[in-house]
Amino acid sequence: MKILFTKMHGAGNDFIVINQLNKKYNLTKKEIKLLSNRQLGIGFDQLLIVEKTTLPNVDFKYRIFNADGNEVEQCGNGARCFLLFLKNSGISVKKTISVETQSGLIALSFEENNQISVNMGFANDNPESIPFLPNHSTSQTVYINNVEYSFYPISFGNPHAVIKVDSLDNINFSSIGEELQNSKFFPKSVNVSFLKVINKNEISLKVYERGSGLTLACGTGACAASVISIKNGWVTSPVKVHMDGGDLIIKWGPNDEATLIGPAKIVFEGEFDLLNFK
Length: 278
Fold this sequence. Notes:
By secondary structure, the protein is α+β, with helices and mostly antiparallel strands. It has helices at residues 29-36, 76-88, 173-181, 219-231, and strands spanning 2-10, 13-19, 46-51, 60-66, 71-72, 96-101, 104-110, 116-121, 140-144, 147-155, 159-164, 191-199, 202-209, 213-215, 239-243, 246-251, 258-262, 265-273. 15% of the residues lie in helices and 41% in strands.
């Protein structure tokens, strides 16, 4: 079975997008994992799928699978690519659309200067919703290789642990990330963000994502780190988030939904034979 796909990236966070509006391919976890392999497959951080929605006044269903084949709730960089894919494929000509995700509805809009904005919804620090243990949402501490790290649990449809550091140099992101992902704190694993405050409107960020490892950018991670930074008075909105793949802008205020603004790019279009990945 041959399947068409589009390779895309949002600030370096890369994806393949597959249209399942008229045909379901039902890719298995193993097939997705093989496709994501950068030596043996196409290579990507996440697989994005377009499907029909059954919800009224909603345009499409947006599904996200990490490189390890597990389906996840939300991806802000992928959402921007999702909208550009719909336009480029002629599937939708709307400037703004509403899409269904596992974590709820989000709105996607084209902005000036080839930027795309995503209404990411409300930040959630309720421990049960993240989910996070123990049952309180203040800063927590973990010891890794005899070094103490404080982290802030928060959710934007998917779980995040935000760690503020003085420098992003000489940090073993994978060691700390995997320790938290496998810890008792996060029963459904967690995306681990490392942030450095540059000034009152800028931060630098690296994110070790569950199921994908260290990525060049993470939209929900940028939202999580920005909200934690604003809440603690380290920065004020809007926040420019510098990541290895590019910059994102986050707008947020108390009791408001967060807005993520950034680029989306098409890299190439292609076709793969699913038989080669069984």
